[in-house]
Every structure is written in structure tokens, then in C-alpha cells.
Design a protein that fits this description.
This protein has 311 residues and is an alpha/beta fold. It has 13 helices and nine strands. It binds NADP nicotinamide-adenine-dinucleotide phosphate. NADP nicotinamide-adenine-dinucleotide phosphate (NAP) binds next to helix 1, strand 7 and helix 10.
Length: 311
């Protein structure tokens, strides 16, 4: 157990990410007390049943009172409205952060509401699963994953370092960049892949010549991998696309051009060029495994044969 970095940590939103932070903070001792607010009484009650915090609040302002650090763990589209609600109750010197998958929009929504005297250090832990809600969290979620901080110019370096130390303490590697650069990088590594998954699963569901039961019965590894991504939380992902429009459209433009080029290679039987591309892409996966960001186990280590039904 470490000495607490934050005597009081407030979590606004207690789904997958909020509950994982709560569990990791408890496991490491990096937060003295954890106060929790979430929108619905049912989720707040569930957080209490799971003993995720020390106090539970229906009003976000009550949760953040006296907190040394406040982390918003809600869909990015509501960041501004929550910043407005908590602003009058924030302690001078508090660090205000978030975990949103989009950064420029979150900064634009939140910054105007935050009083001077609090330190605004937006963050995005690049870690997650396709599950949501307070039952989905686990303390190890952030281990060896990246957490990207996007502090506005002029932010107190001590506050940035304190938040970085918290993320490192719960297992993450920390990097700092501008919100705009973050949004461009994540558009290609996360947002566009999700859009492609939603699209391919949607297309399969709409096919007229192949029944939905055939899609489920004969789903091959490639399709199954897409369905995992396409089962991610609809609210969270709707907000990601509404709030990272420019970068997503830019990357989608590149993607579409490359897809048309690939379509031509298939149409004209250009086997050598297909082979060269598939060789390059295989090297990228090997690089991700070598960087410790993915398992080398075949089929992601999923059970096969008789173990499949038990899993
Ligand atoms: P989640 O499991 O669906 O939990 C969402 C939380 O936000 C719940 O406490 C929910 O409250 C609350 N909430 C939802 N809509 C709200 C609204 N309109 N107003 C106020 N509160 C609302 O979501 P999550 O996966 O933890 O994601 C939270 C944030 O983390 C998002 O910004 C997302 O972009 C980011 N993120 C997610 C992942 C991932 O893989 N999931 C990874 C990195 C970052 P109630 O249940 O009480 O309604």
C-alpha cells in the first residue's frame, strides 16, 4: 500500500472506467477516501452494494466538496453540463480531470465552467473492454496500458505530475500530448476501427440473402472479433463520434481511399500486391505484441473445443 496521493478522490460516473479507478485506488491505497456520484439511483445503489467507495451522492456537487481530485467518468457529451454543476463546490487547488475518449471537445465543454484556482488536467486511459456499468470494473484494467494527459498550456506542472503519479500508481504508463493530436491518433487506432466494426456487423444483420441465424451459426473468427467491438456501449460511442467528427472524418477519408484501392486489387487479381499488404499488416500486429499491448496467444487465448461451452 502506498501513501495516498489524494486524501479525497471524487468519481463522477461509476461505470466500467469509474469502478475500475475506484477498485485500483482502493487496492493501491492511492486515495484516502472515495466519493461517488452517478446519474441513476439504481447505479448508485449498485456502487454501494459493490463497496466501490466511502460515500455516495445523488448530487454531484456534494460528491466533489473537499475533494483533492475529481475525475469525470461519464460519456463525453455530458462533460460540460457536469462541469457546470460541480464548479461552485470545487475546492481551491483541486485537480479536475476526466477519462473521455475524446479530448478537444471535452476541453471546450469543461474549461469555461471551471473556476480559476482549480487545475484542469484532462486524461484518457487507453484501456477498456466491451462491457459497461459498475459490475464491469476491475482493478487491473489500467496495468501496462497508456494514459494520455492533455493539460492546457500554462497548467501547473505540479498538478500534472500529481495526476500522472496517480495513473502510474494504478499501473498505467503516462504520456502527454495536445488534445488535437490525441484526437487524431485515437481516430485511427480506436474510433475508426469501432465504426468499421459497427458497419460490418450492421451490414451482416441487414443482408437479405443470408439469414441472421446463419450469420450467428457460421460466424468465423474475423466476424466474431468485429462483434466483440460492435457490442460496445452505444451511448459512449455515439458521443465519441459526435465529439471527434473532424478527426474521424479525416481518417475515414483515408480509409475509404485505401479500401477502394484494395477493391481494385481484388477485382483485377493483383495477388502480389495483396500479399505485400498482408505481410506489412502482420508486422504491425507483431509490433503491438512486442510492445506488450496484446497477447501472443492464438485467437487471443480464447478457449476452444470442449472448454468453449464452459467459458
Ligand atoms: P459506462 O460503463 O457506460 O458508465 C457510464 C457512467 O456515466 C455511468 O455511471 C452512467 O450513469 C453515467 N452516465 C451515462 N449517461 C449520463 C448522462 N447523460 N449524465 C450523467 N451521467 C451519465 O461507461 P464507461 O465505459 O465507464 O465510459 C465512461 C467514459 O470513459 C466515457 O467518456 C468513455 O469515452 C471513456 N472511456 C471508455 C473506455 C471503454 O472502453 N469503455 C475506455 C477509455 C475511456 P448511470 O448508470 O447512473 O446512468
Amino acid at each position: 500500500m502506498s501513501a495516498p496521493i489524494f486524501p479525497k478522490l471524487a468519481l463522477i460516473g461509476i461505470g466500467l472506467i469509474g469502478s475500475s479507478i475506484a477498485l485500483a485506488a482502493r487496492k493501491t491505497g492511492l486515495a484516502g477516501r472515495v466519493s461517488i456520484h452517478t446519474r441513476s439511483p439504481a447505479t448508485l445503489k449498485r456502487a454501494e452494494e459493490l463497496k466501490l467507495g466511502d460515500s455516495y451522492h445523488a448530487d454531484p456537487a456534494n460528491a466533489v466538496r473537499d475533494a483533492d481530485c475529481v475525475i469525470l467518468c461519464v460519456p463525453v457529451g455530458v462533460s460540460g453540463e457536469i462541469a457546470r454543476a460541480i464548479a461552485p463546490a470545487l475546492k481551491t487547488g483541486a485537480i479536475v480531470s476526466d477519462v473521455g475518449s475524446v479530448k478537444a471537445s471535452v476541453v471546450a465543454q469543461m474549461a469555461p465552467h471551471l473556476p480559476s484556482g482549480v487545475h484542469f488536467v484532462p486524461a484518457h486511459p487507453v484501456a477498456g473492454t466491451e462491457y459497461s456499468g459498475p459490475d464491469a470494473g476491475f482493478a487491473e484494467l489500467f496495468e501496462n496500458r497508456w494514459c494520455i494527459l492533455t493539460p492546457p498550456p500554462g497548467t501547473d506542472p505540479e498538478a500534472v505530475e500529481k495526476l500522472a503519479a496517480f495513473w502510474r500508481g494504478i499501473g498505467a504508463n503516462v504520456e502527454t500530448m495536445t488534445p488535437e493530436h490525441h484526437d487524431l491518433v485515437l481516430a485511427i487506432t480506436s474510433h475508426v476501427p469501432h465504426l468499421i466494426a459497427y458497419n460490418i456487423v450492421g451490414t451482416a444483420a441487414d443482408l437479405e440473402t443470408v439469414t441472421q441465424s446463419e450469420v450467428m451459426k457460421f460466424s468465423a473468427g474475423g466476424f466474431r472479433d468485429f462483434t466483440r467491438i460492435a457490442s460496445s456501449d452505444p451511448t459512449m460511442w455515439r458521443d465519441v463520434f459526435l465529439n471527434n467528427r473532424t478527426a474521424v472524418l479525416e481518417m475515414l477519408g483515408r480509409f475509404t481511399e485505401d479500401l477502394i484501392a484494395l477493391q481494385r486489387l481484388v477485382r483485377y487479381g493483383e495477388g502480389d500486391q495483396l500479399f505485400d499488404l498482408f505481410t506489412r499488416t502482420r508486422a504491425i500486429r507483431r509490433g503491438i505484441i512486442a510492445a506488450g499491448q496484446e497477447t501472443a496467444a492464438p485467437d487471443f487465448g480464447r478457449p476452444h473445443g470442449p472448454d468453449l461451452k464452459k467459458a
